[in-house]
Write a structure and sequence with these properties.
This is CDHR5 protein. It is found in: Membrane. 18% of the residues are buried. The protein folds into three domains: 16-120, Immunoglobulin-like, CATH 2.60.40.60; 128-240, Immunoglobulin-like (Sandwich); 244-289, no CATH class. 1% of the residues lie in helices and 41% in strands. A hairpin with a 2-residue loop joins strand 11 (132-135) and strand 12 (138-144). By secondary structure, the chain is mainly beta. It is built from one helix and 24 strands. The longest helix has 4 residues, at 39-42.
């Protein structure tokens, strides 16, 4: 008598990840659809030889949608949305491996793998001239104001020129890279009157100016290791007559009258003449027509 015994496989084993903890560095400028972790590194095995079903989630707020798996049976992780280092620089993903579909009513065994993603800042932005203000609170765009200064006609200044709102200065906004910046004048420097120090950005004179014409210089800040990353700022230099005398007030003392309960921005009137607004004026012997 032959007796055939068939052993039925019971679902008594959980899936197993070869590497339950992984860390990947991802450059900020990685292209969408690029594979971040290969399928082979993430595939789980099951001693029951069941089909494995995968699900990927994130544990960090506001990082949903950036990473995904290729399919329910393919755990390869790829970049689904472009990264921005200013929004977040790391996240943690949880990859679940189940031996039954999520919707199955049968008993399901599950394994979990943790994938830590570290975003590395890339050289994506050109230098910023300082001071600057963020555009609509967007930290990826900073708008700077033009620089301005003055020189005296027919006078040679040997010191770096004083500028408003401050000295010429630019930085690499990709601050974890912080590339060195060099400066150069690329426009508006008629007769090579001015020079800019390549490293400090200090603006100096090479010769005197004999006409009252103003200069509108264009100063370029360039990253040393990536010359395609540069910005240009304007520097207006006004040529004025030398000031030998300080301004002075026409009177040493001004007397005014105000009335009670007047609204804000009401006039102050001259003392003794309540119909004439009080006016304070100054003169300068260097500029008699001003």
């Amino acid at each position: 008598l032959e007796i055939l015994v068939t052993i039925l496989n019971e679902n008594d084993n959980s899936p197993v990840f070869a590497q339950p903890n992984l860390t990947r560095d991802v450059p900020e400028d990685t292209k969408v659809d690029t594979a971040i972790v290969a399928r082979e590194e993430l595939s789980a095995t099951d001693a029951d030889l069941d089909t494995i079903y995968y699900e990927l989630t994130t544990t960090v707020q506001d990082t949903d949608g950036y990473f995904a798996i290729r399919g329910v049976n393919n755990p390869e992780i790829y970049l689904q949305k472009a990264l921005d280092y200013d929004k977040f620089n790391s996240t943690m993903l949880l990859l679940y491996a189940r031996d039954r579909p999520v919707t199955s009513p049968d008993h399901t065994n599950t394994a979990t793998a943790t994938i830590t993603i570290v975003i590395k800042q890339s050289d994506t932005r050109a230098p910023w001239f300082l001071p600057c203000n963020y555009l609509h609170n967007d930290t990826s765009i900073c708008i700077s104001s033009p620089y301005s200064g003055r020189v005296n006609i027919s006078e040679m200044s040997t010191d770096p020129l004083l500028l408003e709102p401050g000295p010429i200065y630019a930085v690499d906004p990709d601050y974890t890279i912080s590339d060195r910046i060099v400066y150069s004048i690329v426009g508006g420097n008629t007769d090579e009157v001015f020079s800019v120090h390549a490293d400090t950005g200090n603006l100096t004179m090479n010769k005197i100016v004999t006409s009252p014409d103003s200069f509108l210089l264009q100063v370029m800040a360039t990253q040393v290791s990536n010359v395609r990353k540069y910005s240009v700022a304007t520097v207006e230099i006004k040529v004025i007559n030398k000031s030998d005398y300080p301004p002075y007030f026409e009177k040493g003392v001004y007397n005014g009258t105000v009335f009670t309960r007047l609204p804000r921005r009401s006039f102050v009137y001259q003392a003794g003449d309540p119909s004439t607004p009080l006016v304070i004026t100054a003169m300068d012997n260097d500029f008699p027509d001003v």
